[in-house]
Amino acid sequence: MNVALPAIRDDLGFTPSNLSWVVNAYLIPFGGLLLLAGRLGDLAGRRRVSLAGMAVFTLASLLAGLAWNPEILMAARFLQGAGGAASTAVALGMVVRLFPEPAERAKALGTFSFRQAAGSSIGSIAGGLLTQALSWHWIFLINLPISLVAGAGALRVLENDRGLGPRAGADWLGAALVTAALMLGVYTIVEVESHGWASAHTIGFGALSLVLPAAFGVRQSWARDPLLPLRIFASRGLAGANLTMALLVSAMFGFQFLVVLHLRQVLGLGAQATGLAMVPIAATIALVSLVISPRLSTRFGDYRVLLAGLVVIGGGLAWLAPVRADGGYATDVLGPTVAMGIGFGLAMPALMGVGMRDAAAEDTGLASGLFNTTQQVAGALGLAVLAATRTESLTGVRTEEALTAGYHLAFWVGTGLVAAALAVAALMLRPGVAARRTGEPGATVPDRALPQL
């Protein structure tokens, strides 16, 4: 998607401030509906919900591939996000059911995590090839045959579980509140560039985007079947891990969006070359998270590996922040992005281990769903914040220099977010501190209590 953004902008006439909505229109329903989709999987059966979500995603991909104006594309992306949430929310639950033995389950989850990173690499290459050889429309149309193959495989190998039934209930009002809150929050930040921080538009919509999450919290406190039972936040480790993840993913997702624009608009790389340029970071994340991070966590503990990974990520962003308008990919971009890939590959598995180590047995599935939701919500908000900090024009300088000045500020903001994540992790996730739960003694939990993904 990121590789094709400049072509989509030129073809459909997106403005610079609205271009990020091509991504956010997917992320908002995806992040907002994950909790509800997971609950529907419990009620109606995981395979049924997954296949329904896949069908919605496929039809929405067809509509996106045929889009003739920005409104149609964003509507299709919104439907894609809803379908993606239904398929993704139940995936881990199905993996757990298919592999009940701990050793097999650890291998399956490790493969699942590795394939996510591998899919990112394949997507970067395929996005560039399809956009340059055919057109941006094919980055959506290619989903049709892929989804048909995946659906046929799901029908053949996945258990047809029946679920708990509709009487168990789902919090529809809570889902509506959290999705509306996300949409308004991202919209407010994206529109700052047009209206200013002190405008009535920004203040009004910003206030409403804060009221809705508060209403969601109140709703969860008295709903009969809450999407997010508030008791789960009694775990200081889980709460701290989610806050750390929110800050980290905000920085990384915004970085990926902006570095693609820098490669295309400033360095002048084509779509195919840009896709290939993003492969090293994805490949590095896959290698480190699958092979290196588990070994280091076993020896030194999740907490230390997490802190080290955050330091490396922050260093990579600070290295990239003063990138030159007249620089090159190999000299200015490759080194920092590989460093961030190493840091992210170290930090993410360790962060999951730290956050899950003191979750109660009955809350394990809910905690996993919360982590997934945090990643998607933070990705949408981080993209909006970092996109809003860049500038498109400075008088008296070349366009490339004006763009690069905006990217400098955005990358420094991302560095600050990672520094905040490091501070939160150091204060809240230290072994023996993170394990304390409200109303329980502060027992020390081993730092390597769970197998690493």
Question: Gist?
Answer:
The protein is mainly α.
Describe this protein's structure.
The chain is an all-alpha fold. It is 75% helix and 0% strand. The chain has 18 helices and no strands. It has helices at residues 5-12, 21-44, 46-65, 70-89, 91-98, 102-133, 138-141, 143-157, 172-190, 192-195, 200-222, 236-266, 271-277, 279-300, 302-320, 329-356, 364-389, 399-428. Mean pLDDT is 76; it is low at 391-395 and 436-453.
Task: Offer a few descriptive terms.
mainly alpha; 453 residues; disordered C terminus
The helix count comes to 18
Q: What is the helix/strand order?
A: HHHHHHHHHHHHHHHHHH
- What's the rounded overall pLDDT mean? 76
**Span between N and C termini?**
27 Å
Q: Helix proportion of residues, in percent?
A: over 70%
Topology:
Layout lengths: L4 H8 L8 H24 L1 H20 L4 H20 L1 H8 L3 H32 L4 H4 L1 H15 L14 H19 L1 H4 L4 H23 L13 H31 L4 H7 L1 H22 L1 H19 L8 H28 L7 H26 L9 H30 L25
Helix pairs in contact: 2-3, 2-4, 2-9, 2-17, 3-4, 3-8, 6-13, 6-14, 9-11, 9-17, 12-16, 12-17, 12-18, 14-15, 14-16, 15-16, 15-18, 17-18
